[in-house]
Amino acid sequence: xxxxxxxxxxxxxxxxxxxxxxxxxxxxxxxxxxxxxxxxxxxxxxxxxxxxxxxxxxxxx
Length: 61
Known about the structure:
single chain; two-stranded antiparallel ribbon; mainly beta
């Protein structure tokens, strides 16, 4: 079981504003409830504002 353990990092780079899609391969992970977190940090022109959101994902295999 995975309790509070990071299982993947999907994107860890600076990107331009826009819409993006990322494929997530869950091979090797059991069905269950997972939490995913989105973090952004604004540029110096937006006073370095930070946005963080955590949501639940139900994975059923």
